[in-house]
Task: inverse folding
């Protein structure tokens, strides 16, 4: 596998959006407490074009095929939820296509975000995650992220997100 993580090209936005929505569906993460699918959030996940305009859309590509994606939220991004200071980094909406799972794609995306944070002299990286995203939590812990319950939040009714932080060495 010759995996490359880079900024998405406009022609890759549809694949990145599809992969994000499909990844959340595959793990049943779009189901509301009433049993229905959260179509509003699904549409936000699929709208990779918007994410590329309001943040930076990154993709993991192998042999020309998009296998994963993450949204890097620089200090000027309206998509930031947790990071409030310019020395705080944040990434969101990490998703891996079924074909990229168990192949290091998620790890490569997180690694790229951490490299970016260090290159931009960030002091810490923050992220939000649903409590049931246990595989993602395990991956984040491997990188040294710890729970930050003081930053837990609910962006909308019946959606409670856990926060994680990784302090970076100056």
Result:
């Amino acid at each position: 596998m010759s995996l490359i993580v880079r900024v998405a090209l406009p022609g890759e936005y549809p694949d990145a959006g599809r992969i994000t929505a499909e990844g959340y569906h595959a793990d049943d993460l779009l189901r509301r407490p009433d049993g229905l699918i959260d179509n509003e959030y699904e549409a936000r996940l699929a709208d990779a074009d918007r994410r590329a305009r309001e943040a930076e859309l990154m993709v993991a590509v192998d042999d020309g095929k998009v296998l994963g994606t993450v949204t890097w939220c620089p200090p000027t991004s309206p998509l930031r939820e947790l990071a409030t200071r310019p020395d705080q980094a944040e990434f969101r909406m990490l998703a891996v296509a079924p074909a990229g799972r168990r192949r290091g794609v998620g790890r490569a995306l997180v690694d790229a975000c951490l490299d970016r944070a260090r290159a931009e002299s960030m002091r810490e990286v923050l992220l939000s995650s649903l409590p049931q995203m246990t595989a993602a939590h395990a991956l984040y812990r491997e990188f040294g992220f710890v729970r930050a319950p003081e930053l837990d939040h609910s962006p909308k009714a019946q959606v409670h997100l856990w926060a994680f932080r990784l302090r970076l060495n100056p």
Remarks:
- The chain has five helices and eight strands.
- The chain has a mean pLDDT of 93.
- The CA atoms of residues 118 and 160 lie 29 Å apart.
